[in-house]
Amino acid sequence: MGGGFSRQLDQRQRRYLQGRTEAVVKNFIPYYHRQYGAAFLRHLWKEMEQQEKHSHQLMTRHKESNSAEGTIVEDNLMLSEEDPRRWKERYCRVRGDFTVEWFFNKQASEKGSKPMAQMCLTGYLLTTSEKEYREMVNKFCLDTKGGNSSSSDDPFETFPTQYHLFLFHPFQKHFCACLATQDSQQTWYTVLYDGIRHHSMDVQRRGTFASEAFLEAVRFYLQEKGIYGTGELLLGTESEVLSNVVMEDMMPALCVQIPRTLRGTESKKKATWLNFLQEVYAVVLQDVSRLLQATDAEKEEWRHHLEKTVRPDMDQIFTLREQLIKKLKVTLTGPVESCYTEDVEPYLCSVVEELISPLSTAFQEVRLLFSESVSDIIRNVQNNWRATLLDELLAWFTDLPEDSVRMHQCYEKVECLQQSLENLKDRFGFKGTRVLILRAQNLMQQIMANTVYTFQQLLQQQLNKTRNSDLVSQTLENVRGRALKKFDYDSSLIRKQFVQEAVIQIILPYLLKTLEPHCKLILPEYERYVFADYNSVLYIEAIYEDILIQTLLQTVTTVLKEASSQKKHNLYSESLMCIYDREENMLDQNAADNMPTSNCSSYGAIKQKKNVHHQDKHFTQQKLKTITEENSNRPYSETDHITKGYMWSKSTDTDSHHVDDENSDLDETPQHLVYGNLWRLQLPGICNNSDEDQDDPNTLYENDKGDLQDVLLEFKDEGLPLNGRLSALRQ
Questions:
Q1: What order do you get walking across the sheet with 125-127 strand by strand?
Q2: 71-202: which CATH topology?
Q3: Which of 244-258, 305-319, 414-428, 572-586 bottoms out in mean pLDDT, i.e. has the lowest?
Q4: In 3D, which of 691, 686, 688 has the Cα closest to residue 328?
Q5: Domain limits, the chain
Q6: 248-304 per-position pLDDT tens digit
Q7: Most confident of 60-74, 75-89, 383-397, 424-438
Q8: Partners of 118 in beta bridges
Q9: Residue 129: which of 165, 99, 97 has the closest Cα?
């Protein structure tokens, strides 16, 4: 949409924008500083407890960020540039980091000329429909100008071809292209679609405590301004996210002052307005980037100070935190339970179902794509065997997670969340469905990458023994089966965690807004209980939110447990986690010495490590026997044939579950145990088990995990290997 009707910003307007931007960033930094400390505390807790050390069975592939080198797709496209009524042929390409750029022609690109224009795809909306594109433009202009927009004054009079692509962003340059064929249109669509996901989830994808602190700081900053729920503001890099916040802050004033000065036809007014916003955003983004860059040195000072002051006093900090939780619960129980029971709980089961159903379908599509890709390799090996063929096929297979075209069939399965969660806008005021979709797609790509990597690592161990085509085909088949078993478990775990996080994103803002009149004024009274030495990491508002989060998670966990017991959506129950098989152990021979027990003593005042002496062995063995008997009475789980087989296949009980031959020999037990999701997701003091959970075998196993680890370590001190330690426990 029309760059030809540009309106340049004058110096007065630029100074105004710079002042507003600096004010927003200046007010934001204290929130960032505060959340940096809170995120650092969570980071230390996870570090101590090694929460996620053995939670997944698939090996994790750590891939560096996409390089700008190379080209994903390129072609000569017809673009609408300066004047939407005129189309010009340009050489366009998408680089390896999903940056879109175009040149006058291909020769200019090959000579190293500077591109005519570049686009970062953060936050864009993509469509192939001219009607949908016009609706996006008209809706945005209607919201900002307050007048009706006529679609009859259409800037696009004709199209060179019938295959179109439109990229819309309210604050950045649009991309309108015509392509020669439908196949070309589909290829470009899938690559641009993937590029939007890649750029939009930049901060979330990092997963560091610093990025977590930044996103939480933005949320708290907006809540102080009365904005509950971040919608799509958190898409992009730190600079882009904060620029979105600045634009959100300035838009009301701009919408009042600027549109009334516009002149010309309706189409010209829209084009002028959009171009004006593009220039405003460019200035804001430049200033925000400069101001945030200046805080990099400060962040290093923050971390150094926290390392120096917080780490030595972890016991005292967590003790104080638990005391604050107890005090807050006494005061807030009434209004929180009333709001939750009346306004949230009746709808929570349906929300979980709407989330888990399309997600399970999408992950099943990922599983199918992986399996079919291995089948293609097997067929080629059987029909066209030669010495270098397998290496070529595996190189092609390695690129599967990054292949935008092949993965698109999986990504589009979660798009139905846009419709299924539509009613949440009215019920809970939730507007972040698109963020949930992008997050789910990121998880799908990651589990595909981990599955491919695990398959290759397991396969490599076997291929060293043979290169015969028949044996290679059988080996590929066997390794695929074992990789899929690991995929199934990790898929179940990831989907459960996604649902928990999604419920928090959907309902927590509603709870905070609804409870604000009852609880907001009470919270400052508890600030006096926080010692001055700890006020950089302990905040009453954060503790208050953790209490609300746990209230939500208790119900969500119950719903997911019911789904697991009913074998709905192929979810696994979390009674016991299986032990890694022999081949994976070959890749991690040193893991036996990395059992998550060494840090237990660091949290002495709250979670002291139990010292199990020789005279207590009989007591611990009896508890383990009780756990086994309790587990045998619960509904059969899809993972029981794995977990029970590993742990108890040498038992004399003739009625035990069937165990696969490859996993039944305890003499081949690997050097480390996988306990599953036993480490608390939240900080200590929040997840208190209710009375009804005390008899749950899962809870018993979690409570006795420390005893099991201590006994195993004690046997190790006596010189017994892990296999011998397990045998001693069974006896």
A1: 117-119, 100-103, 87-95, 71-80, 175-179, 163-168, 125-127
A2: PH-domain like (2.30.29)
A3: 572-586
A4: 686
A5: 11-42+205-311, 71-202, 315-570, 582-730
A6: 989 888 887 776 677 777 778 888 888 889 999 999 999 999 999 988 888 888 888
A7: 424-438
A8: 101
A9: 165
Q: Report d(CA 653, CA 2) in Å as an integer.
A: 77
The two structure tokens encoding residue 728 = 């001693």
Cα angle: 597, vertex 603, 606; to 5 degrees: 120
- Secondary structure class of 315 (helix, strand, coil): helix
Q: Is the pLDDT of residue 616 over 50?
A: no
User: Which two three-digit tokens encode residue 548?
Assistant: 């609300």
How far, in Å, CA of 558 to CA of 481, rounded?
31
Q: How many CB atoms lie within 10 A of CB 265?
A: 12
* Two structure tokens written together for 42: 């969570």
Instruction: Provide CB contacts within 8 A for 117, sequence distance 6+.
Output: 101, 102, 173
What is the SS3 assignment for 632?
Answer: helix
Q: Please give the helix or strand (H or E) that residue 609 lies within, else none.
A: none
Ordered DSSP codes for 323-378: HHHHHHHHHHHHHHHHHIIIIIHHHHHHHHHHHHHHHHHHHHHHHHHHHHHHHHHH
At 365, list the tokens.
């599509």
Q: Residue 541, Cβ neighbours under 10 Å: how many?
A: 18
Cα separation, 77 vs 176, in Å, equals 10
**280, 208, 220: which is closest to 244 by C-alpha?**
280
- Torsion angle (degrees, nearest 10) of CA 684, 685, 686, 691: 120
CA dist 316 and 319 (Å) reads 5
Mean predicted confidence (pLDDT) in 552-559: 88
Q: How far is residue 619 CA from its own chain's centroid?
A: 42
DSSP helix/strand/coil, 457: helix
Both tokens of 572, joined, read 């696994």
